[in-house]
Amino acid sequence: MAEQGAYLPQPVYYVAPPRPPMSGLAVAGFVFSLVWGFGFLSPIGLALSAFAVAQIKRNPGMRGSALAGWGIALGILGCIWLGMWIYGFAVAGS
């Protein structure tokens, strides 16, 4: 039995450290590149993702580099598709 006035050990609670912030530009660039909008949104997504990469390099603790990378890749594919689509209409129209 514990004697009078003795303290029992208190439980130890561990708190996870806060996560670094996510780059909003990376998220927006990825979403615009993913949605494509028949290719018309791809240049916007590509530009936002490129700005996100620069932002993440300036702030090393910021997350979102993978999203920015995928946004750039999908944006390039969408721009290629958009270019082929515009070229197809230009050739078909002449």
Q: Topology of this structure?
A:
Layout: H1 24-35, H2 42-58, H3 65-93
Verbal overview:
This protein is mainly α and 94 residues long. 62% of the residues lie in helices and 0% in strands. The relative contact order is 0.19. The mean pLDDT is 89.
TL;DR of this structure?
By secondary structure, this protein is an all-alpha fold.
Radius of gyration using CA atoms only: 25 Å
**Strand portion:** under 5%
H/I helix tally:
3
Biggest sheet features: none
Shape: rod-shaped
Please identify the structural class as seen in this structure. Answer: mainly alpha
| Number of β-strand runs | 0
- Give the fraction of residues assigned to helices: 55-70%
Q: Flag low-confidence runs.
A: none
* Average pLDDT: 89
How many structural units, i.e. domains?
A: 1
H-E string: HHH
**How widely separated are the two ends?**
97 Å
In terms of quaternary structure, what is this? single chain
Labels describing this entry:
94 residues, mainly alpha
